[in-house]
Structure formats: structure tokens, C-alpha cells
Automatic annotation (TrEMBL):
UniProt key word Transmembrane: no
Gene Ontology process terms (BP): glucose metabolic process; pentose-phosphate shunt, oxidative branch; regulation of cortisol biosynthetic process
Gene, per the UniProt record: H6PD
Catalytic activity: D-glucose 6-phosphate + NADP(+) = 6-phospho-D-glucono-1,5-lactone + NADPH + H(+); D-glucose 6-phosphate + NAD(+) = 6-phospho-D-glucono-1,5-lactone + NADH + H(+); 6-phospho-D-glucono-1,5-lactone + H2O = 6-phospho-D-gluconate + H(+); D-glucose 6-sulfate + NADP(+) = 6-sulfo-D-glucono-1,5-lactone + NADPH + H(+)
Cell compartment(s), UniProt: Endoplasmic reticulum lumen
Protein name: GDH/6PGL endoplasmic bifunctional protein
Organismal lineage: Eukaryota, Metazoa, Chordata, Craniata, Vertebrata
Domain Glucose-6-phosphate dehydrogenase NAD-binding: 59-241
């Protein structure tokens, strides 16, 4: 005799079945069938019996906080409703620092407003709620002993009820400064026994920039395994966002040919809010809209739209890999890639809530629009606009893919039919929520294709006359979820089922911060444009983009707020012309400086090509020229690339494909975007005979011969140099005498920093150039800039001081950070 559990109307009922005994063998063939059915049911029952024993403890830390009240308790209740009939038992521990009595009262309040699905009968709802409340207890979790007691209680409960433990979920709905302590306590005293899982759920913010995110990740990584951590980005639980990959997958056939730069005009990823930051300024003042929304929610949506589609879109590992590829292809952001704004009453709210003096003006942006480019074959040249703001005229979120219109329609407009005319707008919108539509939706212009969606989505009708994104709703195939679900409840279900594809892994997080941090740093002192808020914003925040830059469409109006003005803007300064070491100096804020240098290089190139038919340009590596390369790549359509020869000033002794190689920088930021004939590109031969910079391979001599063969008089038209903080230039270092004089055109040298081995043009060769430009940027260069301004010709100590073209011109390009010491 075995105990079996049979399902009766979704509930489990315990019974007995006699399955044994050789004497009980059916003679009739029909009886065999029945026996098999009975055995299957019994087996299923046994499996369910095993599952029934599985218990899950959910510990909600911050159980009386805002997020818990608004979403998490409701999400847990939904999880309970969904899963309890499926062979799991639960206990819910609401936890906080508050003492038990007061905590209990607060938690009871938070639980008052639980609601059931619309189709559940009120009596049934009351019953379920009651059971849920019985399973939910408040407990104070403050000290290490509190955590030990929690562990003991869970174990005692399991033993008492004869349950097998499936796992424990700890949901951190607490500020990040509390993470480390809680994590330590869980790790040391609340891990479940062998065979059961631990899942810890973390809510943003996950750091403030790349460095702090890395620190936090390292700290958490010392307590938890990567697979134990579930970092929530609640936008990944929004139904329309969660539908992006499945939609792309299910409609592969139609989208395969459309989802690329040839067909997509632009992509907009937008989250507008009407609320402001009042009541949250202590958080907001530290973060601002880019950290609060763009770095996470909007970036996640961007990766889902842009990633190469994995074969299996529900494989967490494949999704992550493809996301990371998108991050790798993102073009670095510059100050000019973004516009920022701040609603007018923000500073006043900060002064009031954070007790700041009357003179305080915040620079924290509450509105931002950013132009993002993805440098890969699929998306090159397609603008991705990310935009979010508080105190705007409406609340709405969407990702809109607008397709190019390459058709000409011959018949007059009145004959255009929505489903056929290629001249009507063609767009696909993942409507995340709110707005005039009021719900999540997927909209596909009828002239694109009829999409296929899972059965959990239904065709929708909107209010009559509704227009969306310039077209009547009737011009779209429009779908909405059969059952709307809150993002947190979707994610709680994914956590419960261990579905990691909807969460942010450490690698993903750091890649995102790596992308946003330079922009955040460059905007740190930028005064945001003030806007009145709501409908009154008018066209004040409208923006445009071209040549890789994004700017407000309207001039900055008169200041909206009287009082001390914002910090001076770069445009308040003119480009400064002066002398440095007796040669011309151009100085400006970095952005203008780069544009000026790029213009000068283009002008030199055009002149050289006009006179000699070709232009020989030798470029340095390192970080300063990156912005220049990007500028040349995106904003110089008149550049005679077809007649330009590109040479390297110096190179590290690593393979050319190594990210450390100067050639890689040139390739990533310039070469892949412009059309230089391949025989005009001259990387340094540092890698010969499968080894790096071996004297015997004569790489330096080979390069020198190539220069002599192609460059008249070995005199480059333009050599771009930098200046190191130790006074080095090219790869000519103070500690290494090679290349400062003598006959050699190209030399092998030694750098004090890794990789030590280098190849470099020699000073004599550099000084044969017709023009030498030295680019110096950033605060780190202040000291050396001041020092070198005073020294004479001392190349052994400061190789840069040996740069004196014999008959050519030397021009210094320094940004104010480096120069205004
Ligand atoms: C949060 C931000 O992550 O998302 C808030 O911190 C923002 O500032 C919120 O209001 C918006 O989420 P939702 O779900 O209302 O669109």
C-alpha cells in the first residue's frame, strides 16, 4: 500500500491505492489500459507527493517600506495564489529593523490592501487572503542573533511539519548601505541546508558609477555566488519589455530583413513622467535622471532591441552574452551626446528637504536625452535616442522603432490603404505603459507585416479616434496582454522559478556603468536647462541631433530663476589663441578644442591632396586622440580619406588585435567608420615571425623603409603627438635615450609602464614633418604643462621638448583643464 496524492480541482487530496500483488492480473485487454492509467496516476501522485513536501521561505527585508507596500506584498500574494496549488508550501517573513510590536502593526497596514485577480469570487478571495496572512509573520532583523533565530525558526518549522526545504528567497528592499551587513548575516547563519537553494534579490541603485558598482559587486560577491543573486530592474518585468525578445523571435521571418541599418531610421527609448522628485530628493540629488533611469531601465530596453537574437531567447546565458556584445559595440558618449534639464522648482525642493542654504542651486538633471550609436554592422549610423524626465507633460514609456520610408507612391494620398501603402509611416512600438493607450501594448504598422504574438496577448481596440505616433490606432495591428500584471509580480514569479534571464548580472551591470560613467563625469558641472514643468514646458526641451551630437532645438531662453547664475558653460569661453614654448597654442574646452583640431587636420589634408595628390598622416595612440578620431569619423564628410595614408607614431609590442594596441584604438574609433583604402593603412610591424618586437626581425627598419618608399623625403604632412605626464611623447621616454637623435627613423624603446616594449618614430623623423600637432588634455596634464612651458631644449629629460620641426610648423592644442593651471 502506498500513500498517493490525487489532484481534485487543483487541491491535493491524500488517499490509498493497492498497486501490488501478482494475483491481481487483468485478463481483459481493456483492463490493461485501465491498469496503466491507474499506475500513471499513482506515479504522478507520488511525484506530486514529493513536491508537496517542498517548502519555500520568503524573507522580505524592508517589509514596511514604500516598495513593499506598493508592490512587493501584492507580488508575493500573487506568487502564493499562482504556486500554492502546484505542490509548494510557503512561509513569508516580513522583516525590518523596527521593534516587533510596531513592526507588526506597520506590516498589517501594508497587507491591508492586497487584492485578488478580477475573475476571483469575493468569498474565495477572502479565503485565500486569510490563508496568506496566516503564513505571513513580522520579525525584527537587526542583530546577528536575530538572523540566527530566523534560521532556527525556519528549521524548526520544516521539521515540525515534515517538509523538505526547496529554498529561501531574501528580498532586499532596503537602501544599499544596509546590503553588506545583511549579506554577511545571511551568509553566516541563514543559508539553507544541502540540496536547497538560496536566492537573494537586490533592488537598485547598484552603485553610483563604475567604480562604486564594482566595489559593491565585489563585496556582495564575497557573500554570494553569482547564480544566487537576482538584481532587479523592474522594467524587465514590464510585459511589453519582456515581450521584446519573444516577439523578435516569433516574428523572425518578417523582421530578419528589416531589423538593421538599411531599414531602421531611428529607435526611440522613452520614459516620460509627470511626477517630480519631491519627497525623494535625498536620493535623487545624489543620482539624477541618468543614473536613476537611463543607466538601467532604458539601457536594458536598448540591449533587448539591439542585440543579435540568440537561437534560444529564453537561455539566460545566451541572452547575457548577446547583451554584452551590444555593450562592446556602443560608441563612447561625449559631452555633446546629451542634453540635460531640471524642473524649475527642483532646487527649492532640495533646499527644503535637505536643509540647504538659500544660495544653493543643484546641478542634478531631472531630464536627459542622449544620442547613442552602436558601431556594428547591423546598427551603424542608426540613432538610438534615450530620453527620460520628471515633471513632463505626460506619463508614458515606449520603445519605438521607426523604419525608413524608401517608397514613392504614385497614386494620390486618398487612395492609400493602411495595410498596403509603403508611403504611410512604418513603425513598431513596444508600448510599456500609460500614455493615451493606458496599457502595455505592441503596435505594428499595418503596412509592415501582421505579427504573431503568444496567446497571452490579444488584439486590442482603443478609444475611437485615438492617434498614436502620428497615425490612427486603426493603422496598427495592436495587441495587449490578456491579463495585465505588475512588473514586480512577474519578476517574483521568475525568481521563484529561477529564471535568471530577466535579471542583471554583475557583468551586465559593470558593462552598463562602464558605458555611462564617462558621460556622467563630463556632465558633472554642466548647468541643466531649467524648465517650468508639465504642459508649460512647451517646446523648451525639444531637441535635435546631427553629426553625433544632440542639442536643444531652441536657444537657451532668459534664465527662468533669478538669483546666482549657473556655472559658466564652455560656450562662454572663446577659443583662445596664444603661444606656448614659442609656438602657436590653441586652447579651449575639450569639445571645442577637438572640433578645432579636427577642422585643422581636414584643412591640411584637403590642401595636401590638392597639391600632391595624397596626405600622409601619422597618428598617436592613447586616450586623448579617441575623441578626435570619433569627431573625424562622424563629422567630416569632406575629408579626403581615399587619398589619405595613415601611419602610426608609436605602437605597443602586442598583437594588432590586442585591445592595448594603438592600432586597435585607431581601428575601433576611426578606421571602421571611414573609407581609407586598405593599401593606405600602415600599422607598425611589431608582430613578425610570431613574436613581438624582436630586434632580429628588424620591424623598425621595415617600417622606416616603408616610410622612405612612400612618403616624399620621409616628411609626413602631419604628425599628431601627445604629451605624457612625465614629458614623454610618441614612445620616447625620459628613461630611454633611444630615438632622440641619430639616423634611425624608427626605433624600439622601453616604457616605464606596461607593456614595456614599444616601437616609435624617432625625434629626427618627427621633426622632418611639415606640421606637428601636440594634443594635451585633462587635469592630469596640468603639472607637466606648467613645467614644460619653462624648460628649454632638454629631450633627454623631457622628450617632448625635442619636438622642433626643422622647416615645418608646430602647434599646441591644449584644453583648459590642462592649460589653465
Ligand atoms: C524607478 C525610478 O526605478 O522607476 C523612479 O527610481 C521612476 O524615479 C520609476 O519614477 C518609474 O517606474 P514606473 O514603473 O512607474 O514606470
Amino acid at each position: 500500500m502506498h500513500d498517493v496524492f490525487l489532484m481534485s480541482e487543483g487541491r491535493t487530496v491524500k488517499g490509498k491505492a493497492n498497486l501490488g500483488g501478482r494475483g491481481w492480473l487483468p485478463r481483459h485487454p481493456g483492463m490493461w489500459k485501465m491498469l496503466i492509467v491507474v499506475m500513471c496516476v499513482a506515479l504522478l501522485g507520488c511525484l506530486q507527493a514529493q513536491e508537496l513536501q517542498e517548502h519555500v521561505s520568503i524573507i522580505l527585508l524592508g517589509a514596511t517600506g514604500d516598495l513593499a507596500k506598493k508592490y512587493l506584498w501584492q507580488g508575493l500574494f500573487q506568487l502564493y495564489l499562482d504556486e500554492v496549488g502546484r505542490g509548494h508550501s510557503f512561509s513569508f517573513h516580513g522583516a525590518a529593523l523596527t521593534a516587533p510590536k510596531q513592526g507588526q502593526e506597520l506590516m498589517a497596514k501594508a497587507l491591508e490592501s492586497l487584492s485578488c485577480p478580477k475573475d476571483m469570487a469575493p468569498s474565495h478571495c477572502a479565503e485565500e487572503k486569510d490563508q496568506f496572512l496566516q503564513l505571513s509573520r513580522y520579525r525584527q532583523l537587526k542583530t546577528a542573533e536575530d538572523y540566527q533565530a530566523l534560521n532556527k525558526d525556519i528549521e524548526a518549522q520544516l521539521q515540525h511539519a515534515g517538509l523538505r526545504e526547496a529554498g529561501r528567497i531574501f528580498y532586499f528592499s532596503v537602501p544599499p548601505f544596509a546590503y553588506a551587513d545583511i549579506a554577511r548575516n545571511i551568509n553566516s547563519s541563514c543559508r539553507p541546508g544541502p540540496g536547497a537553494w538560496l536566492r537573494v534579490v537586490l533592488e537598485k541603485p547598484f552603485g553610483h558609477d563604475h567604480f562604486s558598482a564594482q566595489q559593491l559587486a565585489t563585496e556582495l560577491g564575497s557573500f554570494f555566488q553569482e547564480e544566487e543573486m537576482y538584481r532587479v530592474d523592474h522594467y524587465l518585468g514590464k510585459q511589453a519589455v519582456a515581450q521584446i525578445l519573444p516577439f523578435r523571435d516569433q516574428n523572425r521571418k518578417a523582421l530578419d530583413s528589416l531589423w538593421n541599418r538599411h531599414h531602421v531610421e531611428r529607435v526611440e527609448i522613452i520614459m516620460k513622467e509627470t511626477v517630480d522628485a519631491e519627497g525623494r530628493t535625498s536620493f535623487y540629488e545624489e543620482y539624477g535622471v541618468i543614473r536613476d533611469v537611463l543607466q538601467n531601465h532604458l539601457t536594458e530596453v536598448l540591449t533587448l532591441v539591439a542585440m543579435e537574437l540568440p537561437l534560444n531567447v529564453s537561455s539566460a546565458e545566451a541572452v547575457l552574452r548577446h547583451k554584452l556584445q551590444v555593450f562592446q559595440a556602443l560608441r563612447g558618449l561625449q559631452r555633446g551626446s546629451a542634453v540635460v534639464g531640471q524642473y524649475q522648482s527642483y532646487s527649492e525642493q532640495v533646499r527644503r528637504e535637505l536643509q540647504k542654504p538659500d544660495s544653493f542651486h543643484s546641478l542634478t538633471p531631472t531630464f536627459a536625452a542622449v544620442l547613442v550609436h552602436i558601431d556594428n554592422l547591423r546598427w551603424e549610423g542608426v540613432p538610438f535616442i534615450l530620453m527620460s524626465g520628471k515633471a513632463l507633460d505626460e506619463r508614458v514609456g515606449y520603445a519605438r522603432i521607426l523604419f525608413k520610408n524608401q517608397a514613392c507612391c504614385v497614386q494620390s494620398e486618398k487612395h492609400w490603404a493602411a495595410a498596403q501603402s509603403q508611403c504611410l509611416p512604418r513603425q513598431l512600438i513596444f508600448h510599456i505603459g500609460h500614455g493615451d493607450l493606458g496599457s502595455p501594448a505592441v503596435l505594428v504598422s499595418r503596412n509592415l507585416f501582421r505579427p504573431s504574438l503568444p496567446s497571452s496577448w490579444k488584439e486590442m481596440e482603443g478609444p475611437p479616434g485615438l492617434r498614436l505616433f502620428g497615425s490612427p490606432l486603426s493603422d496598427y495591428y495592436a495587441y495587449s496582454p490578456v491579463q495585465e500584471r505588475d512588473a514586480h509580480s512577474v519578476l517574483l514569479s521568475h525568481i521563484f522559478h529561477g529564471r535568471k534571464d530577466s535579471f542583471i548580472t554583475t557583468e551586465n551591470l559593470l558593462a552598463s556603468w562602464g558605458f555611462w560613467t564617462p558621460l556622467l563625469e563630463s556632465l558633472a558641472h554642466k548647468a541643466p536647462r531649467l524648465y517650468p514643468g508639465g504642459a508649460e514646458n512647451g517646446r523648451l526641451l525639444d531637441f535635435e541631433f546631427s553629426s553625433g551630437r544632440l542639442f536643444f532645438s531652441q536657444q537657451q531662453p532668459e534664465q527662468l530663476v533669478p538669483g546666482p547664475g549657473p556655472a559658466p558653460m564652455p560656450s562662454d569661453f572663446q577659443v583662445l589663441r596664444a603661444k606656448y614654448r614659442e609656438s602657436p597654442l590653441v586652447s579651449a574646452w575639450s569639445e571645442e578644442l577637438i572640433s578645432k583640431l579636427a577642422n585643422d587636420i581636414e584643412a591640411t589634408a584637403v590642401r595636401a591632396v590638392r597639391r600632391f595628390g595624397q596626405f600622409h598622416l601619422a597618428l598617436s595612440g592613447g586616450s586623448s586622440p579617441v575623441a578626435l578620431f570619433q569627431q573625424l569619423a562622424t563629422a567630416h564628410y569632406g575629408f579626403p580619406w581615399a587619398h589619405t595614408h595613415l601611419w602610426l607614431v608609436d605602437e605597443r609590442c602586442v598583437p594588432l588585435s590586442d585591445p592595448e594596441s594603438n592600432f586597435q584604438g585607431l581601428q575601433a574609433h576611426l578606421l571602421q567608420h571611414v573609407r581609407v583604402p586598405y593599401y593606405n593603412i600602415h600599422p607598425m610591424p611589431v608582430h613578425l615571425q610570431q613574436r613581438l618586437c624582436a630586434e632580429e626581425d628588424q620591424g623598425a627598419q621595415i617600417y622606416a623603409r616603408e616610410i622612405s618608399a612612400l612618403v616624399a623625403n620621409s616628411s609626413f604632412d602631419l604628425v599628431l603627438l601627445g604629451m605624457g605626464a612625465d614629458g614623454h611623447t610618441a614612445s620616447l621616454f625620459p628613461q630611454s635615450p633611444t630615438g632622440l637623435d641619430g639616423e634611425q627613423l624608427v626605433v624600439l624603446t622601453t616604457s616605464p609602464s606596461q607593456p614595456h616594449r614599444r616601437m616609435s618614430l624617432s625625434l629626427p623623423l618627427i621633426n622632418r614633418a611639415k606640421k606637428v600637432a601636440v594634443l594635451v588634455m585633462g587635469r592630469m596634464k596640468r603639472e607637466i604643462t606648467a613645467l614644460v612651458s619653462r624648460v628649454g631644449y632638454e629631450p633627454k629629460k623631457w622628450p617632448i621638448s625635442g619636438v622642433l620641426p626643422h622647416s615645418g610648423q608646430l602647434v599646441w592644442y591644449m584644453d583648459y583643464d590642462a592649460f589653465l593651471a
